[in-house]
Amino acid sequence: MHIADVTFQRGTRAILTDIRLSIAPRSVTVVLGPNGAGKSTLLGCMAGLLRPTSGSIRIGDDDVHALAGPERARTIAFLPQTPEVAWPIDVEAFVALGRIPHQRTASAAVNRAAIERAMTITDTARWAGRVVTELSGGERARVLLARVLAGESSWILADEPFTGLDPSHQFEAAELLRNFAHAGGGVVLTIHDLSLAARIADRIVLLHEGVVVADGPPADALSSDHLRNVYGVETEWLIASARHQTPIIAIHGRHVR
Amino acid sequence: MMAAHRRWLMPLLIAATAVLAIGSVLVGKITLTWAMWSAQDEITRTIFLELRVPRALLGIVIGMALGLAGAAMQAYLRNALADPGTLGISAMAALGAVLSMFFDVAGLHPWALPIAGVLGGIVGMAVLFLLSGLTASALTLVLAGILLSTLAIAGVSLVLSLSPNPWAAGEIVRWMLGALTDRSIDDLVFATPIIAVGSALILSCREALNALTLGELGARSLGIDLSSIQWRLCIGVGLVVGASVAVTGMIGFVGLVVPHLLRPLVGARPSALLIPSAFGGAILVLAGDIVVRLLPGGSEVQLAVVMSVIGAPFFFALLYSLRRRLV
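^ inputs. structure came back:
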């Protein structure tokens, strides 16, 4: 995915300025930044839902914003920040919504199989008849992911998919997305939790006031210098244990000039 | 994996519609009996063919129109309080129809009045969408509906009062309190094709209405072109409601009550609710119209009154149960 000189303005205010990125599939990219840095806007532009003021986003040879709706949706799946479930439909019917872009291009059997696969991968098949709006937060997160996976897109863009999940469900959801990337898909996420981002990302894009200030593997992008500049906090990179190499970014306090 | 009871729903609804339609033909000031029918006299034939049958058919068509419109509006706005009556679309259609009479356009062509009603309905939908947008809270939506219906009803009363019409007061009642009484086969002939076209437009949005379960962003990310859907629904609901109101006047609450009652029976999927709601609407209107005729008293109570007696407490209960989510 090539993001070429994307600028996005709302009124006279620039939300994104000259974003230039190439994102490879088979990896998990995390977009990080303070509130209002432009993360969601960038993700919305990449998903083809927001039209940049200038610049373009291409996947292969296709301009994302020039693709017809269903074709774009077959390429890119998008999970909004606060996913809405308007009606008390059952899990199976909910996951089936992910096949809407394929309704006219794939047979009923193919669609059926994709829905079943997505429910198997996410281990949600046993809830097929339960009502989505009555699930717990963790169960619901898995069903939301099943809906996204059912679309069998080559890219998944998710805006803060882990917010409000307990550590075990966070881990579970992160694993599902990592597996999708290992199987060849491209994953772009926004996350607020620095340690979680450091753990699951192959690459981190740090945004600040609509500009990319750091871009690279977690250990480089999340250096204490960068985090001080962007968030104004003093941080330290710790490795929890030698065995697991799980990074923790400790936040010591606000940076005092 | 369709639950067993869901397979029985449609046959049941169709059967109930048929039974009530037959009931509607037989019941009234004069109850038609087999003996009268076999006697083949002129009066029986007239009552049967020119009064009862058109009335029953009109009940089916209008009920289907209102039920379908209600289900579609609820699905699009993702709000169980939406209905052509509560959101002022019916009132706008009545205003359109009344205006066409005031400016004598209605006399030019028999289609002019229903078309004016349709235009009123479309304008009503457009104003509603403009006021509330796609992501409106239930509160904004209900307020927009109050605004629209208040303005439109005031407009209807004003236009009828200004007209040089000695029966203005009666006319106002006719529009505000709709009924199936004394409508002819011509009314049926004008309303049915308009309602059919509108229904086809609404049904063409099925997939998009399902996608909207995920909200505006979710639906767009599934490749749905929402502005095209918005137009199709605007015109579709305008056609369906406009033609209904032009023929029968305002009959409220059908589109509110029916989808709400049927939703749990179809598993809440918006597309699965559309056709059952159409039949549910037919059942409710036919049943109400039979009740109207069975009530004792000299003059018939208007159908809209019966609907409001059923619908208003229902609306109250719905608001009460949703009140926490309203603001």
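The longest strand of chain A covers residues 13-22. Chain A has a mean pLDDT of 92.
thumbs up if we can close this ticket
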